[in-house]
Design a protein that fits this description.
The complex is a heterodimer of chains A (about 210) and B (about 250). By secondary structure, chain A is α/β, with parallel strands linked by helices. Chain A has 6 helices and 13 strands. In chain B, helix 1 (about 35-45) packs parallel to helix 2 (about 60-75), helix 6 packs parallel to helix 7 and helix 8 (about 210-215) packs across helix 10 (about 235-245). The chains are: A alpha/beta (about 210), B alpha/beta (about 250).
Chain lengths: ~210, ~250
């Protein structure tokens, strides 16, 4: 039995993340919630969902999950929303938050970078432009719609890390891939059939890592 | 480039059952919220709103199990409202799988609930439902299921909700609701001009052109409708095709 561990640091609603993975996994996987770093030791796949502010997220992760970054770079990892943003070097949220620096790039407020009258948060269905082909996109057409909810956006420095972009006043990084790590700004657990397909593709992809 | 305009079917739920006679030929149990929600998801609904109309207080816990069952099976955003009176109600609904909660009367009687939810959970999960009625050329906010005039101006109240941290405004025209005569474009346009959070239009949808008008003339970010979808007059797919044909970005 392979264990999929969903990290719970008290700031996100795990319900739909758990249920959506439940929907796509087969019998050889079990799903569990990780509340401390110890719970991750025997995990085959680590999922980090998240919503809320980057600084309290990093604070909680650092206290309950010390050295989480070592786990992230070592086994199949799936980050969603805030679990995607904290992989970058830093976020400008609350005057600046140091993040994991696993993916080169920064996270910035939509407000500071555009003069256009855009509604913030960026909430709703938007187009995900696939930058390069990858098993994670299997049976998902390029320019499919996924569901987003966020006020800060990421920009990856290296093109090779940037798996997709999305346009909301600015063209930002909407998902990244780096070896065993996949993470996305959008919510696959809320993106209907394309979202479930993506989760399923990640599970398949992780078996080859 | 912007986000797609959303089409949101709204289901009335009484004691755990979908009411107002949903009429789909291919659904076995049209009163089962899970079946109806799945059907709308498969047609491309961008979100589903449940309005709990259960009158008795004892019956109110049933909405939590409804939301939980739907959230286990349907993976698009779920919005739930009706009788939400305090922070605990909001938290309970979110914890069983709702993504957003609509608050109506409770926000008017205690506006601090908006700040409270926003600060503790985040603005994306709070939608303020505003029921408006035009009296002598002024739009007023009504509460208690449309029975009581709060005497608040619709425009001022929407702006206050935004300031306090609401994530979206769901604006229902009581004059238009049920008429199938089209949305109240005047009030939609007045509010959307100065609103920086999404505005959902509700009340009056009778055909697909009405949905189109709400978006182009009312400047709504999303349209909510019940009867035109429930009775099978139009499917969500048809609505999307129609809007796409008119150059509107839809999923």
């Amino acid at each position: 039995m392979k264990k999929i561990s969903v990290i719970d640091y008290g700031m996100s609603n795990l319900h739909s993340v758990l249920k959506s993975f439940q929907k796509v996994i087969d019998k050889k996987y079990s799903l569990s919630i990780a509340k401390t770093i110890k719970d991750l030791e025997d995990a085959s796949i680590i999922i980090l969902p998240g919503q809320g502010a980057a600084n309290s997220c990093m604070d909680r992760l650092n206290s309950k999950f010390p050295s989480l970054d070592k786990f992230i770079i070592n086994r199949p990892f799936f980050g969603i929303c805030l679990g995607f943003q904290i992989l970058f070097n830093e976020s400008s949220e609350d005057g600046g938050v140091k993040c994991f620096s696993i993916i080169d790039g920064t996270v910035t407020d939509f407000k500071n970078t555009t003069n256009r009258k855009l509604k913030i948060p960026h909430m709703g269905w938007n187009i995900v432009n696939q930058n390069h082909s990858h098993p994670i996109w299997k049976n998902i057409s390029n320019k499919s719609f996924f569901y987003f909810v966020h006020s800060y956006y990421a920009q990856a420095t290296k093109l090779s890390d940037e798996l997709s972009t999305t346009d909301y006043g600015i063209n930002f990084t909407s998902s990244v891939i780096k070896d065993n790590i996949f993470a996305c700004q959008y919510h696959p657990e809320k993106s209907s059939s394309n979202g479930l397909q993506l989760l399923s593709n990640f599970i398949t992809y992780s078996e080859g890592i | 480039m912007s986000v797609a305009k959303r089409i949101i079917p709204c289901l009335d739920v009484d004691k755990g059952r979908v009411v107002k006679g949903i009429n789909f030929v291919d659904i076995v149990d049209a009163g089962d919220p899970v079946e109806v929600a799945k059907k709308y998801d498969s047609e491309g609904a961008d979100e589903i709103t449940f309005l709990d109309i259960t009158a008795s207080h004892e019956g109110r816990d049933t909405i939590l199990s409804v939301v939980e069952k739907v959230a286990n099976e349907v993976f698009i955003p779920l919005t739930v409202g009706g009788g939400v009176s305090d922070f605990n109600d909001v938290r309970d609904l979110l914890s069983v799988g709702a993504d957003k909660v609509t608050i109506n009367t409770a926000a008017v009687s205690n506006p601090n609930i908006i700040n409270d939810v926003t600060e503790k959970i985040g603005r994306q999960c709070i939608v303020i439902a505003v029921d408006v009625k035009k009296i002598d050329n002024e739009y007023y906010v009504f509460t208690h299921g449309g029975r009581k005039n709060s005497m608040l101006s619709a425009y001022d109240w929407c702006m206050e909700c935004q300031k306090r941290g609401a994530g979206e405004i769901l604006l229902t025209s009581m004059d238009k609701d049920g008429t199938k005569d089209g949305f109240d474009l005047e009030i939609l346009n007045t509010i959307s001009t100065d609103l920086n959070i999404p505005l959902i239009a509700s009340g009056g949808a009778g055909n697909l052109e009405h949905l189109h008008e709400a978006i182009t003339k009312g400047n709504a970010d999303a349209v909510l409708a019940a009867s035109i979808f429930h009775f099978g007059e139009f499917s969500i797919t048809e609505a999307k095709e129609y809007l796409k044909g008119k150059g509107i970005l839809v999923r």
